[in-house]
Design brief:
Blueprint (H helix, E strand, L loop, with lengths): L5 H34 L9 H20 L3 E5 L2 E9 L2 E8 L7 E4 L8 E2 L2
Antiparallel strand pairs: 1-2, 2-3, 3-4, 4-5
Helix pairs in contact: 1-2
C-alpha cells in the first residue's frame, strides 16, 4: 500500500475508530478470560474457553482489518497504530496512541516511538 497524507491518515483513523474501540474491549475480555483459563481462577461472567477462543478469533479479524487499510498495528497494549507517510522528503509514521483524540504525532520511520514529535 502507498503512503498516507496527514489528511488521509486522519480520515482513515476516524473510519477505524469503531474497530479500534472493539479491539480495546476484546483485549480486556480476552485477558480476563485467559487468566481464568490458565490459573483455574474464579469464574467470570464473560464465560470460559469457548468465549476466550471467540474473543481471540475476533481480535485477529479486527487486527487484520486495521492492517488491510495500510496502517500498521504496532502494539496491542497500549494500542498503537502508525500510518506510513512522508514529511519534507523524510519517511515518517503518523502515530496514534490509544487514548489520544486525534492524529497529532509522528516519528521518523527509522527512529520509532522514541523519536515521536507533534505534527507541525
Amino acid at each position: 500500500m502507498g503512503l498516507f497524507t496527514v489528511s488521509e491518515a486522519r480520515d482513515e483513523l476516524e473510519r477505524l475508530r469503531p474497530v479500534l474501540e472493539e479491539i480495546v474491549t476484546l483485549r480486556a475480555d480476552a485477558a480476563e478470560l485467559g487468566a481464568v483459563i490458565r490459573a483455574g481462577g474464579p469464574p467470570t461472567p464473560l464465560g470460559g474457553m469457548p468465549e476466550w477462543k471467540a474473543a481471540t478469533a475476533r481480535l485477529d479479524d479486527l487486527m487484520t482489518q486495521v492492517q488491510q487499510t495500510g496502517a500498521v498495528l504496532k502494539s496491542l497494549a497500549p494500542l498503537l497504530v502508525d500510518f506510513p507517510s512522508e514529511l519534507d522528503g523524510v519517511d515518517v509514521d503518523l502515530c496514534w496512541l490509544e487514548g489520544e483524540t486525534g492524529l497529532d504525532w509522528y516519528h521518523r520511520s527509522d527512529l520509532g516511538f522514541a523519536g515521536r514529535r507533534r505534527l507541525p
